Amino acid sequence: MPDDAAPATSSASSAPSPNPSSPAATETPVDPDTPTAWGPTLGELEEARELVSTWSPEQLAGGVIVGRFHGTDPEEPARMLRDLHLAGVSVTGDNVVDEPQVRAMTTALARAAKDDGRAFPPVIGVDQEGGYVSHLRGIATDFPHFQSAGLAIESDARLGRRVTREAALTTGLELRGLGFTWVFAPVADVTIGAADPTIGPRSPSEDPGVAAQAIGAAVKGYDDAGIVSTVKHFPGHGTATNDSHDTLPVVDSTLAEIEAHDLPPFESAIDHGAPAVMLSHLDLTAIAPDVPASMAPEVYDLLRDDLGFEGVTITDSLGMGAVGGRPTPALQALEAGADLLLMPVDTTATHQIVVDAINAGEVSRERVEEAAARVVAVQLWQARIAAQRPVPVDVVEQARAASADLESAAY
């Protein structure tokens, strides 16, 4: 395994391809156990592609949606997941009561996926960054703001990376113990300080290099825990001076400024095997003016072609003010390159919109299959790693110790 400070240096996707006319190209079989750069093996990715090729439009549409739900009844999200074939759901603080209710909910969701004929777990995700963005407050261990990771690294880089990785590892294990398969963290945004109203201490640092180290360590910890991490909010929300929960922020940074200030943590995440990246709702005037980044093909091209990311792309919540008023935000994001559509305002209506678009050819079945296959593949990976790494019986004690160590190293 690479050190938590060093970029990953090998992957199946980065290996040079043989000349297709050479004997080696025709005689050497591809090893299905070869890992991709983002987690799943080539065999798991091919299995996922074959599976989704058999899906109906209804299954495909569901397979690219992570729904929202209201209330705290575990059977409500389970019914949605089963009936709409959803990839999964996002759990917020409004959906939780206490630990038994959370466990009942995640158990019901896992059962609903099995009832829907799936041999892999659903996406059960939650914002659990540490600090004030922690939707399981009082249920899972409290960790300090992710800013603590950057402060710890600034104080002692080696120790800082270690405690950051341990914090992510124990967070991931504790979430898995509660039944979650995804965590919507870590935050890779490089804040500009007081002028940044949205990210602030959620960011690891105002220094791109420090932030890159923190993100690399965190991604490695989450990977080791067998939970799907979600690096956010590409290509960086830290310079936005408006809150995308309310409006579409305009970011006038040049491409060179974005590359120097915002991209290093995302590059580090990719080097360390990040399985998923969340796209922001920002108007990036230098890349795709007047279009939210989450719906701009140019931004997905930046992530995939320039940075080399091959994993799952997921939008920020489609219920945010930044994308309000757009007629079909989910379709725009899917066509632009999103693999998962997060928390549309109306999950059922959005599912039908995507079904109708597939049937009418408004979005190609090939694009939706590509997206759904990545999601299935990462869930196959998650299930495999989780099976290999059981949650320890003293996970809560380990998490509390890791939280204390992170805070101590930072302050």
TrEMBL record:
The protein's name: beta-N-acetylhexosaminidase
EC class name: hydrolase
Biased composition (Low complexity): 1-29
A Pfam entry, by short name: Glyco_hydro_3
PANTHER family: BETA-HEXOSAMINIDASE (PTHR30480:SF13), BETA-HEXOSAMINIDASE-RELATED (PTHR30480)
SUPFAM superfamilies: (Trans)glycosidases
Catalytic activity reported: Hydrolysis of terminal non-reducing N-acetyl-D-hexosamine residues in N-acetyl-beta-D-hexosaminides
Alphabetized UniProt keyword annotations: Glycosidase, Hydrolase
Domain of life where this protein originates: Bacteria
Entries under InterPro entries matching the protein: GH, Glyco_hydro_3_AS, Glyco_hydro_3_N, Glyco_hydro_3_N_sf, NagZ_Beta-hexosaminidase
Enzyme Commission identifier(s): 3.2.1.52
Residue ranges of every copy of the Glycoside hydrolase family 3 N-terminal domain listed in the record: 73-377
Region (Disordered) residue spans: 1-40
Family, per entry: Belongs to the glycosyl hydrolase 3 family.
Keyword hit for Hydrolase: yes
